[in-house]
Design goal:
Elements: H1 2-25, E1 28-37, E2 40-50, E3 53-61, E4 67-79, E5 82-90, E6 96-107, E7 112-117, E8 131-138
Antiparallel strand pairs: 1-2, 1-8, 2-3, 3-4, 4-5, 5-6, 6-7, 7-8
Length: 139
């Protein structure tokens, strides 16, 4: 009896992983997200999703005149509008770190896209918005 239950659980997990892999391999999209305060851009995120490979360029204003920027290259899995990334974040020419990130992207009727993340990057700015509005630039 326990063996049948384990076979069912393992089969469901394998099915979900196969579905996520197929969905990520069929994804081709480029997004540009940003936030603006007082007509100046505070945070920008350029995200490219192509055949299971993800690349991001992050630029964030951490304090008055202090900017943080990084690049990310890695692989992603897609579960409908939820994305899970695993790869290397390059902080500068000499520093990099392994990173796992997850986020949600939804397209609005107006043609805009919304980006919601629960895993902020290295900047310790408490004013950083976890919700960014942007556009899908390439289909």
């Amino acid at each position: 009896m326990l063996n049948k239950a384990l076979i069912g659980i393992i089969s469901a997990i394998v099915f979900l992983l196969i579905q996520a892999i197929i969905s990520s391999v069929n994804t081709k999209a480029t997004y540009e997200f940003s936030t603006k305060n007082h007509n100046t851009t505070q945070d920008t995120l350029q995200l490219t999703l192509n055949d299971g490979h993800a690349s991001m360029v992050i630029s964030r204003k951490c304090s008055t005149n202090n900017y943080y920027s990084s690049r990310f290259n890695g692989l992603f899995l897609r579960f409908q509008n939820h994305y899970y990334l695993l790869g290397m974040e390059y902080l500068d020419n000499n520093n990099s770190q392994l990173m796992f990130s997850n986020f949600f992207i939804d397209s609005l009727r107006s043609g805009d896209a919304i980006y919601i993340s629960r895993s902020p990057f290295s900047c310790q700015n408490t004013d950083f918005s976890e919700i960014l509005i942007g556009k899908r630039t390439i289909s």
